[in-house]
Amino acid sequence: MKFKNFPMVPRVIFGRGCFSQLQEILMPRRKNSEAPFIFLVDDVFESNQELISKIPLLFGDKIIFIPTDEEPKTEQVDVLVSKIREYTTQSPSGIVGIGGGTVMDLAKAVAIMLTSNGKAEEYQGWDLVTREAIYHVGIPTISGTGAEVSRTTVLTGPEKKLGINSDFTPFDQVVLDPELTNGVPRDQWFYTGMDCYIHCVESLNGTYLNAFSQSYGEKAEDLCDEVFYNGKLSKEETQDKLMMASWHGGMSIAYSQVGVAHAMSYGLSYLLGTKHGLGNCIVFNHLEEFYPEGVAKFKKMQERHEIELPKGLCANLSEEEFETMINVSMGMDPLWENAVGKNWKDTITRVKLRNLYEKM
Ligand code: NAD
Ligand code: ZN
């Protein structure tokens, strides 16, 4: 048996208001006055002067606002990289991503592609990156994906939706300031939060589970219970705990894998552009067969927070479209193997997936 030896985020700061320490965090990382920091910021903050004024701009630093109505694409990474190369003759001092999973994943991918040749799509897969990325910092403004701590950046390319999984992907620094999650819309709070809950359920019920993953997964699940299920917390406690749940959920899947909800939600996302958190919720809602307790609790949480999931997503799809979704989903071998075991192909058939998709 060969064990994975994976890197972790080497520096993390946690605390309400700690975002205002960004200046002192970045200062020692400035190479010189010609090498700027590039801040990729979710465009939801474009008119948020309170946040923007705290970004410690110096010399030729630049803010690039990122629209987040669509999830990151390899082409978008390539465009950002050329834009940054045109902007500065020197390699930047670093890339800082401020936003949710979408912006954090873009920041990781841009940092990698600034030192790697070719196009981002060439690096989708496992351990294809061979050069150190430039210094990159992740600052989540919504909690749940675990992108702040993970070894991947999920991108949709011309041929596939797949992460750049590499030792150079994790952030060099993460800033966890729960106050930044003020203002997250309630539905989105639930969908992205449930991404974390689903990471826990899939990791804890998977065949890849070991004590390392379990220790993080159980902690994350307890925190999700406090936030979404038991619900006696103040707003501040809710924000603090969900931010740490996201972290632990991400750590839990580092050494295991996600499962059925993710494998099927990738199909929805590839074909219909359904966003990650929402897609996972739509799929997970129909997975009693695989995760009976997890799904029962999920339904209660949904009720409690009065969340209505969209229905009929697959009602008018053509044969060909169903085939595409099923192909994408069945292509996620490690996820199915984790969920069902080495012989997953015996029970996970195209007909089975078709029946499940038809319910969504
Ligand atoms: P997101 O980043 O797309 O953000 C969702 C919405 O919330 C956006 O409209 C955004 O503008 C808004 N938002 C974020 N912070 C806000 C704030 N403080 N106030 C108001 N609005 C705010 O959503 P997400 O669920 O965080 O991320 C989904 C992405 O993460 C997907 O692309 C998915 O593939 C990726 N992902 C990556 C990993 C990983 O390990 N790399 C893991 C899971 C998911
Ligand atoms: Zn996820």
TrEMBL record:
Alcohol dehydrogenase iron-type/glycerol dehydrogenase GldA domain ranges (all copies): 11-178
Domain spans labelled Fe-containing alcohol dehydrogenase-like C-terminal: 191-303
GO molecular function, one term: metal ion binding
Superkingdom classification of source: Bacteria
Protein name (database record): Iron-containing alcohol dehydrogenase
A Pfam family hit: ADH_Fe_C
CDD domains: Fe-ADH_KdnB-like (cd08184)
UniProt key word rRNA-binding: no
SUPFAM superfamilies: Dehydroquinate synthase-like
Keyword Oxidoreductase: yes
Residues that span the membrane, as ranges: none
Keywords, comma-separated and alphabetical: Oxidoreductase
Signal peptide bounds: none
